[in-house]
Write a structure and sequence with these properties.
heterodimer; A: Ferritin; about 55% helix; B: about 0% strand; globular
Chain lengths: ~290, ~325
């Protein structure tokens, strides 16, 4: 699969199609970090719509980064290609989304941990291959449902996201298929792979509640995706001879916490690595 | 390769057919007869080439998580992905000679087959990513473009695809260095330091001097190789000097100067002791590179076993 390097060109958007909501308290709207925000003729989203773009953009950015950590470490060469490919697609999505709200690099490299709005699921360390696949299965199944809905553009609030979603839905269908195929192989492979796959699914289960928390400014209520998501996950796990994990999918810490800038501990270390070089050379261009 | 008819109109002996095909610049294909030594040389060279692509992912992947802009991060990820893809083409091409990817990887992991010595140097700064693109990929292209006309068909065809992507990477590396060179003082210094560290190892990529190159004559006769090591190295230096000038960077060689009579740049002596040390396994990163490769393979064993077990079950189920 050939991937061009210039994946993140922001979609141009007809001004006037968006219905920017009111600014949400604690929203990650970049404010002073974004020189262009609010200027006349600016194509950028503001308020709740910008916050929604950042939330989805952060999901893609952070998961892309985690998948990038696999480069050169995958179990087979084909997976080095596949994981890098998925990481690139997600990075392209992140660049488009963040650019809707501000400057992609300022948003990626100059915000603190508490300002990131990604869900906690995507920031979880890679673990073993099964752990990575479980994370990908949960996330890309959700992402496909969400983008499918956003791509319809039938809700005024979601109109700014429709062009991105129309492109992304094709990518995430591939990601979901990749995760499903591996869930089947690992679940219905050897005793060891089955155990590892189940362990990965169980360990990440508690983070999945957050997928269905509301995102202001998106125009689609993620909680409306939950029944479909559960049915799809259950069907794949059943085919893979695995069980749907038990136990809470939400609690005080995991329900919507990432969307409020409350993250798990490994995330700060991930950001330290990601941002170090950029922050060491203030104002430089690369 | 077309059959060559002898004077009496009968088919020639296979060795003669092979020699005639090579002489006529025709391609040798997997089912054609070929001398055992030709086959062995190609397996060795293609394996080394494939291994270099996959070991070569490491020094660059080292910077994926620290790339300083999202655009650069995307470019670097795409590049490392391309390298895995090149490894795949080359292992497939080598498999047409009757070996297998598993066997070649085992030999790599056991230290019985080599990869390019250049990847035993560390990437210490972001600028190294640019220096690798410009110099290392540049040297690789200089070496590999003639391989597009190599006598063995599957190798030649793999190289056509690979060279297209490599020249794209090389331009990206140059462009990365240009941005640094024209950036802040600290960025310029970073770029210069990287070029200083990668220049000589890049010249070593062309292999030992012609006087010491053990495989050269036979490979040239078989048209696996088209130019000598020293010829290609000279061609590379001649290309790089003006590029360094337009980058605003210097090359770390006080003896580098234009030679009017030869119509080439003269350059200083290469430290062949360093080259031999790296080949012997004593370079800065030999241990890390091969350990990481082995670890990825060993830690991935259960995944490959799972895939095989799943495939076997479903073959039975589908039968």
């Amino acid at each position: 699969m050939t991937t061009t390097s210039e994946t993140g060109t922001p979609e141009t958007r007809n001004s006037g199609t968006a219905t920017p909501g009111t600014a949400t308290p604690g929203s990650a709207a970049p404010g002073s970090a974004t020189p262009g925000s609010g200027t006349a003729g600016d194509d950028r989203l503001t308020g709740a719509a910008a916050a929604a773009a950042i939330a989805l953009g952060d999901d893609a950015l952070v998961l892309s980064h985690r998948l990038g950590e696999w480069a050169g470490h995958a179990p087979v060469l084909e997976e080095d290609v596949a994981l890098a490919n998925i990481a690139l697609d997600l990075l392209g999505q992140a660049r488009t989304l963040l650019s809707l709200a501000g400057d992609e690099d300022e948003l990626a490299y100059l915000r603190e941990e508490r300002d990131f709005r990604n869900i906690q699921l995507v920031e979880q360390p890679n673990g073993d291959f099964a752990h990575t696949i479980a994370r990908q299965l949960y996330f890309s199944t959700w992402q496909e449902l969400l983008h499918d809905r956003l791509a319809r553009g039938d809700v005024p609030e979601s109109a700014p996201f429709a062009p991105l979603a129309a492109k992304a839905v094709k990518e995430v269908a591939y990601h979901r298929d990749h995760a499903e195929q591996w869930t089947l192989r690992l679940g219905d492979g050897t005793a060891e792979s089955r155990e590892r796959m189940q362990r990965g699914l169980d360990a990440l289960w508690r983070f999945t509640g957050e997928l269905f928390q509301p995102v202001d400014g998106l125009g689609v209520d993620p909680s409306s995706l939950e029944a479909d998501w559960l049915a799809r996950i259950a069907a794949v796990l059943d085919r893979a001879t695995l069980s749907v994990p038990e136990g809470p999918r939400r609690n005080g810490w995991t329900a919507g916490a990432g969307r409020q800038g409350l993250h798990t501990e490994p995330f700060g270390r991930m950001l330290a690595e990601m941002q170090h070089l950029h922050r060491s050379h203030p104002g430089a261009s690369w | 390769m077309t059959a060559v008819l002898d004077a009496a109109g009968g088919a020639s002996a296979p060795a003669e057919v092979f020699e005639a095909a090579v002489a006529a610049d025709e391609r040798i294909e997997p089912r054609d007869w070929m001398p055992d030594a030709y086959r062995a040389t190609l397996v060795r060279q293609m394996a080394q080439h494939a291994h270099s692509e996959i070991i070569g992912m490491q020094p660059e992947a080292n910077w994926i998580t620290r790339a300083p802009s999202l655009r650069r991060k995307a470019i670097l990820m795409a590049k490392v992905q391309d390298e895995a893809g090149h490894g795949l083409y080359l292992y497939s091409a080598a498999e047409t000679l009757g070996t297998s990817r598993e066997e070649l990887l085992d030999k790599l992991h056991a230290g019985r087959q080599r990869y390019s010595s250049i990847f035993n140097y560390p990437t210490l700064t972001w600028a190294d990513v640019g220096a690798i693109g410009w110099l290392v990929d540049g040297a690789a292209i200089t070496n590999q473009v003639p391989l597009c006309r190599c006598s063995y068909g599957p190798y030649a065809r793999a190289m056509v695809r690979i060279c297209k992507e490599e020249s794209f990477h090389q331009r990206q590396g140059y462009e990365l260095l240009l941005a640094l060179s024209r950036g802040t003082e600290a960025q310029h210094a970073m770029a210069q330091d990287a070029v200083d560290r990668w220049w000589w190892p890049s010249l070593m990529m062309f292999g030992p001097p012609d006087s010491e190159s053990s495989h050269s004559d036979q490979s040239m006769a078989w048209k696996i190789k088209r130019h000598s090591n020293d010829e290609l190295r000279q061609r590379f230096v001649d290309i790089c000097v003006p590029q360094a000038e337009s980058l605003g960077l210097t090359l770390p060689d006080p003896d580098l100067r234009w030679n009017e009579q030869r119509g080439h740049y003269d350059f200083g002596p290469i430290d062949w002791d360093e080259f031999r040390e790296v080949l012997r396994g004593n370079g800065p990163c030999n241990e890390e590179r091969i350990s990481q490769r082995r670890r990825a393979h060993e830690e991935g064993a259960w995944v490959r076993e799972a895939a095989a077990a799943y495939a076997a079950k479903h073959r039975e189920a589908d039968a």
